[in-house]
Amino acid sequence: xSEQITGLILAGGRGSRMGxxxxxxxxxxxxxxxxHVLERFGPQVDETIINANRNLSTxxxxxxxxxxxxxxxxxxxxxxxxxxxxxxxxxLIATAPCDSPFLPLNLIARxxxxxxxxxxxxxxxxxxxxxxxxxxxxxxxxxxHLREFLQSGxxxxxxxxxxxxxxxxxxxSSVDAFANINTVNELRDLEPETSSGPIGAATPGVKP
Length: 208
What we know:
- The chain is an alpha/beta fold.
- It is globular.
- A hairpin with a 2-residue loop joins strand 7 (122-127) and strand 8 (130-139).
- It has a seven-stranded mixed β-sheet with strand order 5-4-1-6-8-7-9, with helices on both faces.
- Helix 3 packs antiparallel against helix 5.
- It has helices spanning 33-41, 56-60, 77-87, 107-118, 143-151, 157-161, 184-190, and strands spanning 5-11, 27-28, 31-32, 47-52, 65-67, 92-97, 122-127, 130-139, 166-170.
């Protein structure tokens, strides 16, 4: 793209609604969900980083840098974004969760256009009246601001956004693209009938 965007895949959650499993490594349509996200998200950014707090060596086998939260206890997406900002080598950072295998192929281009046009701090995807805060593009220079927010004990992503100049980008024709898979039932419901094999963690092969 523009040689200025780091892509951060958020795979550091507890997965509490899926039995506290590592959602990024759950099989979906024959491969771990992280692979679906890498295939759709990776080509849209200039470098890729994975934020994970478990199974680090498994994620590292994909060939990308893996960073763990600097805050203990599965502190949420802002903790992942913060370590991603510290690890990023480029001025902008985009995030996507590991459990959204259908994310739009034009996600980053549209967020970048809006961020630039509006001279905003952060661009976030939205469908109708529903924002999707973990699909965002922001400036890595905001790291000190986010660090101060986290050090104050705050964890709510919406509250941090409220302190920034944010532009919302409508994806009303792509509602299904933002579907995320939070439970085993959702995983099975979206699985094609031709798929086989147990739902569980998998070991990656080569870098997608």
